[in-house]
Amino acid sequence: METANILGVRFNAITLDDAVDAAMERIRAGEKGYVVTPNSEIVYLCRKEPALTALLNRACLVLPDGIGVVYAARLLKQPIKGKVAGIDFAEHLVAQMAREGKSIFFLGAKPGIAELAAKELQKKYPGLVVKGCRDGYYKDDQEAIDAINQAGGADVALICLGAPKQERFMAAYQGQVNATILCGLGGSLDVFAGTVQRAPDIFIKLGLEWFYRLLKEPKRIGRMMSLPKFMLVVLKTKLFGKGAK
To answer: Would you say the pTM of this structure is higher than 0.85?
Structure first.
């Protein structure tokens, strides 16, 4: 599978449909792995945390969830085919899982949100088998592991704990969790539950989903500042090569 190197993070250069097909092949084969969906904020954070880069690169799928990563790929002449938003990947994956009667577990968000997300997704995709739900407010990781395993495990577990906590969880415990695929999806459960609205299509098509989120949540401005910093590093890398500071 072709990859693109963006500041040391190796993204899979595939389309949304290809990503879903690849995940389903692993599910059918019972081949364990975890899926990460880094945006520019996470890639920028990797510059300070080499261990985070390593665990991202160990994922079975590394999907470019952010227009900043796509722009970076164009500047660096890396073969990313386009943005593959984590929530779009999850939606299409769930649809295919429902058609094949596959099972899922939801971990994360505030109490009650995972259950609501499960209900809404089952309503939309009736063949989906929900093994269980657990909110993200636990004191010890073992509680989360036990919740999944005691539910009988699942073909897929959506790990929605926010980045980079969810990536560290998946990398550390994929061998202990009874699920074939672990998928880190940040705040997606809130969107599936209907408690948070995704940006209108026009913002998504224009690559301005980040701007819509900023308008809705101005307190995100601190986090959003990583985008121009990320692009500056990308530009320096293009001009001066690997290792530009």
So the answer is: yes
